C-alpha cells in the first residue's frame, strides 16, 4: 500500500483537524505515475520542464509514511505565528508554500458563514505572502466560496465556472498560470465530481480545510489538481483572526461555532459543515475586543445553530448540567451536558463595549431558554431582534422535517418571546412545497404568517439535496409549478403582514446605525434599526446630542435618531433628528 493510502485511511478514521498531508485527491497523482493510465489524471495546462516535474514526482513518491502521520496526530502541531509559513509536508518545500505576491481574487456566495469563511481563507493566504485584488483580470488565483443549500445556488457556480473558462484559456504565456479553486460547501458536497466535470478547476477546499490552502495551491502549481474535503470534529479556526474584506465596514461577523447536529430531514448543512463544535469563549472575546478597538459598532455572532453554543474547552465547566430547551421542544440527538452555554457567551460579549451592538444568527427555536431571553431584554446593546426559523406552519410537515416541535409549541414560544422582550422584531425562514405537503398544510403556513406578522422573512421553494434524510426516505412529489405558486402566495402574504407590522414604527423615533449612502439616491443615507430593518433618511445637517453647539452630518458608524414617517414590507423612511450614542439613545427610544 502506498504511504498516501495509509494516510488517507487514518485521516478518515480520526476525522481530525488539518494535518500536514494534502488530500485524498493527491492519491490520483500517485496512481497516475504507477498503474493508472495517464489520462486518469489531468495533464498540466502548461508544459512542465522535465527536471521540475521529475523533482516534484520523486518528492511526492517519497512523501509521509504512516508513522509520520501517527506522530503528527498524537501531538497537536503548533500553529504558525503571523510572520511564519507553516512547516511544509515532505513533498513540498518552504519556498513552494510562499505566495510570492501572487494576486488572489475571492468571490463569496451564500450565507453569512461564507462571508466569514472568506475572511478566514484570506487571513491564511495573506500570511503566506499572497496579495488581494478586486480586479478579476489581474488575478493569479480565483477562489469561489460556495453554497450548496439549494440547487440554484450550485447552478450559479457552474455558470460562473463557464465564464471563467475563457479567462483561463486566454491567459498570456508571459504570466503565471491562472489557478481556480472551489471552496466551501459545494466542494464538500460534490468533491471529485467538480474536478471530473470541470478540468479547469485546480483546487478544492472544504469548510474545514482552509489551513491547507497554501499547500493545495503549491501542488496546483505543478499542474496537478489538489483537494482537501475532509470534515473535522474540532476545527473552529479559533486562532485565525479573520481579515475584514471591507475596510470601511461598520459591522463584522464573528463565527462562534461550526457545523450542526440537528439533522433536519431537508438540510444538507450537517453533511457539508460537519458536526457541531464551538470555539473557546476566550478566543471569541479576544476577536470582539479587537473589532471594538478597530472602531466597529456591530458584531453578529455566527453559527449554523448559534444558540446551541457549548464551550467544553475548560474542564472546570464540564459538569453534568443538562441543556435547557424551549418549552415543548425536543432534539434529534441525545441531550448534551456541561460546558459554557450561549447565555454565558452573550453576557460576556455584551460587556466588552456598551457602544457595540450585538446580534446573532442563525438560531434554532429549541435553544431559547429563559436566561437568553432575559439577557436580551436587560442589555441595551443586545439587539431586540430574534430570527426564529419556522419552515412550515403545519405540525405534520414539521414532523416530516424533523424539526422537533409542533405548530402549537412554536406559537407558544412566539408569545413567550413577545412577553419577555416588549417590542421585539421577529424574522423567520419558510420552505414551500416540502415532500408530501398538501394544500391544507400550505394554508396552515399562510395562516402562521398572518398570525405572527414577521418583520423580516426568507422564503424559498423546496430543493431536494442528496445525502439528506428526505432524499433517502421521502419523495419530492410536489410539482415545480405548484412549489412556485405556493411560494408566491407565501411571499405575498408575508409582505402584506410585514407592512402592517412595520407601520407600527411610523411616528416613533428609532436608533439607527449609519452604514453609508443609500443605493437608490446619493442624497440619502441608509442604516439599520435595532430590529435590523433598513432605514432611509436624508443626508442633512443635524445636532450632535453629545455637544449641542455642533452641527454635523452623519458618517458610517454613527448612531443617529430618526423619526419614522413611512414604512413598507422591507424599509422604513424618516428624517434625522440628531447624532447620539447607544447609551444616551435609551432616553428617546
TrEMBL record:
Residues 246-500 form the Radical SAM core domain. Residues 503-578 form the TRAM domain. Keywords: 4Fe-4S, Iron, Iron-sulfur, Metal-binding, S-adenosyl-L-methionine, Signal. The gene is CDK5RAP1. It holds the Pfam family UPF0004. It comes from the Eukaryota. Residues 102-222 form the MTTase N-terminal domain. GO terms for cellular component: cytosol; mitochondrial matrix; nucleoplasm. One of its GO terms (biological process) is positive regulation of mitochondrial translation. It catalyses: N(6)-dimethylallyladenosine(37) in tRNA + (sulfur carrier)-SH + AH2 + 2 S-adenosyl-L-methionine = 2-methylsulfanyl-N(6)-dimethylallyladenosine(37) in tRNA + (sulfur carrier)-H + 5'-deoxyadenosine + L-methionine + A + S-adenosyl-L-homocysteine + 2 H(+). This is Mitochondrial tRNA methylthiotransferase CDK5RAP1. It comes from Bos taurus. The keyword 4Fe-4S applies. PROSITE patterns: MTTASE_N (PS51449), MTTASE_RADICAL (PS01278), RADICAL_SAM (PS51918), TRAM (PS50926).
Amino acid at each position: 500500500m502506498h504511504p498516501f493510502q495509509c494516510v488517507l485511511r487514518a485521516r478518515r478514521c480520526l476525522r481530525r483537524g488539518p494535518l500536514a498531508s494534502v488530500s485524498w485527491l493527491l492519491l490520483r497523482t500517485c496512481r497516475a505515475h504507477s498503474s493508472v493510465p495517464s489520462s486518469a489524471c489531468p495533464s498540466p495546462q502548461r508544459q512542465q520542464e522535465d527536471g521540475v516535474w521529475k523533482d516534484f514526482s520523486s518528492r511526492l513518491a517519497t512523501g509521509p509514511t504512516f508513522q509520520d502521520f501517527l506522530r503528527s496526530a498524537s501531538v497537536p502541531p503548533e500553529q504558525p505565528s503571523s510572520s511564519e509559513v507553516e512547516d511544509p509536508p515532505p513533498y513540498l518545500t518552504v519556498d513552494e508554500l510562499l505566495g510570492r505576491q501572487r494576486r488572489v481574487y475571492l468571490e463569496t456566495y451564500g450565507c453569512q458563514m461564507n462571508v466569514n469563511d472568506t475572511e478566514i481563507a484570506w487571513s491564511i493566504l495573506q500570511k503566506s505572502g499572497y496579495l488581494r485584488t478586486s480586479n478579476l483580470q489581474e488575478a493569479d488565483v480565483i477562489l469561489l466560496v460556495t453554497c450548496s443549500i439549494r440547487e440554484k445556488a450550485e447552478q450559479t457556480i457552474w455558470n460562473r465556472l463557464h465564464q471563467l473558462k475563457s479567462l483561463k484559456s486566454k491567459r498570456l504565456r508571459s504570466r503565471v498560470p491562472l489557478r481556480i479553486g472551489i471552496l466551501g460547501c459545494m466542494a464538500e458536497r460534490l468533491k471529485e465530481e467538480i474536478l471530473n466535470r470541470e478540468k479547469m478547476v485546480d483546487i478544492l477546499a472544504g469548510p474545514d480545510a482552509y489551513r491547507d490552502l497554501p499547500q493545495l495551491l503549491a501542488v496546483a502549481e505543478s499542474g496537478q489538481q489538489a483537494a482537501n474535503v475532509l470534515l473535522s470534529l474540532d476545527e473552529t479556526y479559533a486562532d485565525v483572526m479573520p481579515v475584514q474584506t471591507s475596510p470601511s465596514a461598520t459591522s463584522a461577523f464573528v463565527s462562534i461555532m461550526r457545523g450542526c447536529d440537528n439533522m433536519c430531514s431537508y438540510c444538507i448543512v450537517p453533511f457539508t459543515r460537519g458536526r457541531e463544535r464551538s470555539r473557546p469563549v476566550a478566543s471569541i472575546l479576544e476577536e470582539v475586543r479587537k473589532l471594538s478597538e478597530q472602531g466597529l459598532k456591530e458584531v453578529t455572532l455566527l453559527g449554523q445553530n448559534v444558540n446551541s453554543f457549548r464551550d467544553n474547552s475548560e474542564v472546570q465547566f464540564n459538569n453534568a448540567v443538562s441543556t435547557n430547551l424551549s418549552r415543548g421542544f425536543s432534539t434529534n440527538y441525545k441531550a448534551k451536558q456541561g460546558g459554557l452555554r450561549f447565555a454565558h457567551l452573550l453576557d460576556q460579549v455584551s460587556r466588552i463595549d456598551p457602544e457595540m451592538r450585538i446580534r446573532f444568527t442563525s438560531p434554532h427555536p429549541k435553544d431559547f431558554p429563559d436566561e437568553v431571553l432575559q439577557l436580551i431584554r436587560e442589555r441595551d446593546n443586545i439587539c431586540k431582534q430574534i430570527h426564529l426559523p419556522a419552515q412550515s406552519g403545519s405540525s405534520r410537515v414539521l414532523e416530516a422535517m424533523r424539526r422537533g416541535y409542533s405548530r402549537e409549541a412554536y406559537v407558544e414560544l412566539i408569545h413567550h418571546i413577545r412577553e419577555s422582550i416588549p417590542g421585539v422584531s421577529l424574522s423567520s425562514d419558510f420552505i414551500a412545497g416540502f415532500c408530501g405537503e398538501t394544500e391544507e398544510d400550505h394554508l396552515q403556513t399562510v395562516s402562521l404568517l398572518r398570525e405572527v406578522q414577521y418583520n423580516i422573512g426568507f422564503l424559498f421553494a423546496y430543493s431536494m439535496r442528496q445525502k439528506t434524510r428526505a432524499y433517502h426516505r421521502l419523495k419530492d412529489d410536489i410539482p415545480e409549478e405548484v412549489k412556485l405558486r405556493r411560494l408566491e402566495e407565501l411571499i405575498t402574504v408575508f409582505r402584506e403582514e410585514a407592512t402592517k407590522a412595520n407601520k407600527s414604527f411610523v411616528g416613533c423615533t428609532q436608533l439607527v446605525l449609519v452604514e453609508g449612502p443609500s443605493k437608490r439616491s446619493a442624497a440619502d443615507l441608509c442604516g439599520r434599526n435595532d430590529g435590523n430593518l433598513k432605514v432611509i433618511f436624508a443626508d442633512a445637517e443635524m445636532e450632535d446630542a453629545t455637544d449641542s453647539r455642533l452641527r454635523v452630518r452623519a458618517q458610517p458608524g454613527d448612531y443617529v435618531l430618526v423619526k419614522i414617517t413611512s414604512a413598507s414590507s422591507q424599509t422604513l423612511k424618516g428624517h434625522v433628528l440628531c447624532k447620539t450614542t447607544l447609551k444616551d439613545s435609551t432616553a428617546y427610544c
